[in-house]
Amino acid sequence: MTNPKLMVYLNQFGQIRNFFGDTKVSSFIAGGVAGAISRTVVSPFERMKIIFQVQSAGGNISQYNGVIPTLTKMWKEEGWRGFMRGNGSNCIRIIPYSAVQFSVYTISRPHIDLLIPNDDPQGQYATWIESARRMTSGGLGGVMSVAVTYPLDLVRTRLSIQTATIGKDALRAGTSLPPSKVTQQPQGIWSVTKQVYRTEGGFKGLYRGIIPTTIGVAPFVGINFAVYEYLRDLVLRRSEVTRTQPTTLEKLTMGAISGAVAQTAIFPFDVLRRRFQIMTMPGKLNNFGANGGNGQYTSVWHAIKSIVHNEGMGGLYRGLSANLLKVIPSMAATWLSFEFVMDILRV
């Protein structure tokens, strides 16, 4: 005789499994998990990249030079916490950011396929059309994820630099506070959010820099998804044995390549994003040599012209080497974690 309670439990379990097995739900969950894991792994490099980006040759003497010297300086001045500074706010941001990104990509694919038809799947342009579809869906996911989580990105940037030497020196130069008070500036996520909201124009302050961010993130995510999916298809197509999944090493390699290609392509916009995010911070750290060395950026185009004029073309790629050290393992971990969680939820 069948136990009625057992049947109820089995039915409920089946419903739960079907819910999490839905591609839309599983991609949302897997994306969030993948984002948190990848960002924590590369937190020291993420902070180092931000510090490099906001050091301006036009306004401040560079106090952080080179990857190893900078990591050493961070360790000596702040210890282990220096490596993890801003990672809490980054994880709070990256979980919904990555979740929205992957789920929007998954949900939008059928609709994008209708908008960009491919009448000849075996034709010479089939690969290009498929890549265009992937880039469009990925770009849409990037735009949506930025819109949802941008204030947390701004707060994370502020937290990342305010305890670094450049942040403390700039604050000393731009405030009447005694040195003992300046060293007490590190604040929590909520405190910084309230401070920006109250003193920098409300929501406008929290979304400062969102235009260059969106311009950079949309193609980054699009290129990242397109390159990874292309490499995935290529690996499976050229495999000597019929299989549906790449190996772990292949996933890591494909993620690393896709991340490196995408980040190098859009890096100048990442520099602009960081500059705009700290432009209204107290002190002289925000003096990037704009308006003849004594002002702030008034637009994205003005920022680009000012950076090139005062720092050369290299200013648009300040921190790229440190960022690649972060992006390569980060995207490798992201794609591996995403596919791993998706496999679990599909069971």
Short recap of the structure:
By secondary structure, the protein is an all-alpha fold. The chain has 16 helices and no strands. It is globular.
Give the biggest beta sheet: none
Shape: globular
Write the CATH architecture name: Alpha/alpha barrel
Helix content: over 70%
Question: On the 0-100 scale, what is the average pLDDT?
Answer: 80
Write the CATH fold name: Mitochondrial carrier fold
Number of domains: 1
- Class by helix and strand content? mainly alpha
Task: Report the sheet-strand fraction.
Answer: under 5%
The separation of the N and C termini measures: 29 Å
Q: Indicate the low-confidence ranges by residue numbers.
A: 170-184
What is the CATH class name? Answer: Mainly Alpha
The ordered string of helix (H) and strand (E) elements is HHHHHHHHHHHHHHHH
| Total of DSSP H or I helical runs spanning 4+ residues | 16
Rg, rounded, reads 22 Å
Going by CATH, what is the homologous superfamily? Mitochondrial carrier domain
How many distinct beta strands?
0
Label this structure with key terms.
mainly alpha, MCP, globular, 75% helix
Task: Please tell me about this protein's structure.
There is one protein chain. The chain is mainly α and 347 residues long. The chain has a single domain (18-346), classed as Alpha/alpha barrel (Mitochondrial carrier fold), CATH 1.50.40. Helices cover 75% and strands 0% of the residues. It contains 16 helices and no strands. It has helices at residues 4-21, 23-41, 43-54, 67-78, 80-84, 87-115, 126-161, 165-173, 179-182, 189-199, 203-206, 210-237, 248-277, 290-293, 300-311, 320-346. Helix 13 crosses helix 16. The two termini are 29 Å apart. The relative contact order is 0.15.
